[in-house]
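Predict both folds.
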Amino acid sequence: MNKLLAPAALLALGAAALAGCTDNTATASVDGGIAVNATDDSCAVATASAPGGTLTFSVHNEGTKVNEFYLLAEDGLRIIGEVENIGPGVTRDLVVMAPEGSYFAACKPGMVGDGIRSPFTVTAAKDGQAVDADRAALQDQATGQYAAYVKDQSEQLLAGTTKFAAAFAAGKTEEAKKLYPQVRMHWERIEPVAESFGDLDPILDAREADLEEGQEFSGWHRAEKDLWAPKGYTPMAQAQRQEIADGMVANTKELATRAQGLEFTADKLANGAKELLDEVATGKVTGEEETFSHTDLWDFQANLEGAKIAYEDLAPLLKGNDDALDGQLKQNFASLQQQLDAYRVGDGFKYYDQLSQEQVQQLAAGVDALSEPLSQLTAAVVK
């Protein structure tokens, strides 16, 4: 949980050294590649560092499960490149352009969970490794990285929802309460994507106060109310809990399936980042999202992370074109994260109802300060 809640570290992405994927359909390694031996419980990378520029990871699956391999940014969330569906006995290559910085190499046996991770350092690039790319290529790079991120988060949301639903249906209240804010972070990081499925979003994430006449109260917030029962509330019977749990898993599975085939554009990424900050302003910082559990700050953190991922994927488009906006966004993201960090408790946060009105107002001011430059991002990356 700690790595999920850690503030996202910033990577210096220069136009001369780009973080992005190339065609990863090759099944054979190329000369000079970095060997990776993946098993069902290990991920052995031949070296822990390499010079910046073109990197080729030659991944051989020695296990019994289908595997995936990722190069992740220092925050452990943003995906620089990935290669999927590496069957037992198969070798596939991941080829990326990566600038100097800190990363994680990760294998994902069974293609589920956070994966088996190890630190990976990219040192200064060798002469001749600089790459010139036009804006169209940078936009393609950004959208490809973000699509991989959405896929990963939706898969982790499904795995977490399945675990939460089992605990909730079995009446394991304390376990379900612990899982609730942790799992919802995967939803909140990609909330604009989840909300784009107009048939699934209401039955998975509608708040009781927002229900329209005749609309059934189901999904996350129905379970939330039962777990943090308000005064006078009659708890659900086991059969009712099972029905809610089954619906959550089935609908999340459908959401994850649909998310696999989504295509993005640079303007959608930038607008989505702004939408995530709007979600914080209208729901999380007001305490309206998690009415019963008061776990709004977990949601706040996840919305902030999701917005920052989209911005960082788009950042190469700002280099040399709008450095002032890039610098302001970096500073304001860091400032808001610092504000939120003040309310950390263990691997989570204070409950929203423990904050004073003054503290809430300070957080709201931080959101406003970031929201203003973030509203300029779309125009800056599509021009």
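Second protein follows, with its predicted structure tokens after the sequence.
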Amino acid sequence: MTTAAEYAEFAAREAHGVSAAYERLSLAVSRDDEVLALLGTLPPIKRQPNLLFGVVRFLGGPVDDPAAFHDYTVANWPAIEAEMGTRATQTNEAGRCAVLLPVLAALPQPLALLEVGASAGLCLYPDRYAYRYGQHMIGSGEPVLDCAATGVAPPACVPDVVWRAGLDLNPLDVTDSADVAWLDALIWPEHAQRRARLRAAAAVAAADPPLLVRGDLVDDLPALAARAPAGATLVVFHTSVMYQVPAPRREAFTGVVRALPGHWIANEAPDVLPYDALPKPPGAVLHNVLALDGTPLAWTRSHGQAITWFA
């Protein structure tokens, strides 16, 4: 897929109906030969819309007006290029816990959670957040995660988590203002509620920091998994991470994670991991596939705002 087509698809499938600003901006970039030429100097994995838009926001540039965005990007390309080269889209959306919860709550308790691509580890606290599935409330405290659930009964309670750890090539620290600023920059412009959710989830993590290990998802996963306490169900999970991993490494990871004791939860775009057959998604916007131990269970929205069970 060309870079222009990638931005056009992002506008149509991910930003449409979710962020008017990013839909406009993505369409404009898809037709902007000058910005596309600059993006063409980067490795393909570094050309993605979320990374470009996040970096421009992080540097204080405009994302609401495509013309102003064009001028800023062209004028400040060396700084933008440097940030895009060293950063990754580490969107740490705690709302994704709402689509993981039905699976986590059904596993043998207590749990030892290990997140691959953990960013700052905010998805390692599904037991500390509150949830609202329609009129059904679960848990207590902040943030409250809203999720529309179709075809699945909300769980009766939050899981019992006795150990939590994350693996990431570049772990972020919620007590570091620059790291939190990057997480904030990755939230789409209109999403004030997600920004408030980030602050609330960061406060939860800062009060009881998780074990975050800098490492590779293939080479370093077994050693970290071996640190999980005996008597707890090990759950290795990841959400919207594997699209950044080259296909051969994804295959190697699948082999490693299947060899571990416990369970494996994946929540990724449908073309990222191989599944024999999937039903039609519940709409044209991008949905992830929630799977347990390689078996697909449900369609989910990328920020955890909806789950449609089909298993």
